[in-house]
Amino acid sequence: MTVRLRLVLALAAMMLVAACGADTTTETQSSRAETTLQAVTLDGDSFDFASLSGQPTVLWFWAPWCTICRAEAPDVAKVAQRLGADVRVLGIPGRGEEPAMRQFVADTGLGDMTHVVDASGEIWSTFGVVEQPAFAFIDGAGEIEVVNGTMSAEEFETAARALLS
């Protein structure tokens, strides 16, 4: 392998890692937003974000090709199951094609969660998400805290349960 080819491959790998939110530090932003967004789930059902009003909710932003999202997915599924009806957890896949999104859900055990497709990027933009993975924690009063970056299962569950107080 030539030095030039190695350099190109190393640069491509760095770009992929950067695009997949590999930085384990998190950037947090808080805001309050009322949203009238409407979208379609991976199952083809209509979804109105107004239905979340007053309900503690976590939006998990992911992409089907993101290796960090893939590694984080089983923990997200387990925490969502433990939270039950107390805190709603929704997946917001973007930056990919729907067949790849469906395959990601099947491969990672996320089938019990609702996933709202963000093909246009409008949902990600509305919540200020610039990379994946990311989490938007929305309390019952509509206060939103966005964490751009990965979270451990413990961090995710603690932040989600804090929405109940």
Summarize the structure in words.
- Helix 2 packs across helix 5.
- This protein has helices at 3-19, 67-83, 98-108, 122-126, 153-162, and strands spanning 27-32, 38-41, 46-48, 57-62, 88-93, 114-117, 134-138, 143-148.
- It is globular, with a radius of gyration of 16 Å.
- It has an eight-stranded mixed sheet with strand order 1-8-7-4-5-6-2-3, with helices on one face.
- The chain has 165 residues and is of the alpha+beta class.
- The chain is built from five helices and eight strands, in the order αββββαβαβαββα.
- It has a single domain (3-162), classed as Glutaredoxin (3-Layer(aba) Sandwich), CATH 3.40.30.
Give a nutshell description of this structure.
This protein has 5 helices and 8 strands.
What descriptors fit this protein?
about 160 residues, Glutaredoxin, eight-stranded mixed beta sheet, 8 strands, about 25% strand, disordered N terminus
- The tally of beta strands, per DSSP, is 8
Structural class: alpha+beta
Q: How large is the count of helical segments?
A: 5
The CATH superfamily appears as Glutaredoxin
Provide the residue-averaged pLDDT: 83
Total domain units: 1
The whole-angstrom Rg is 16 Å
What is the general shape?
globular
Encode the helix/strand succession as letters: HEEEEHEHEHEEH
What portion of residues belong to β-strands? 15-25%
- Head-to-tail CA distance between termini: 58 Å
Helix content: 25-40%
CATH level-3 fold name? Glutaredoxin
Task: Enumerate the strands of the largest sheet in spatial order, edge to edge or round the barrel.
Answer: 1-8-7-4-5-6-2-3
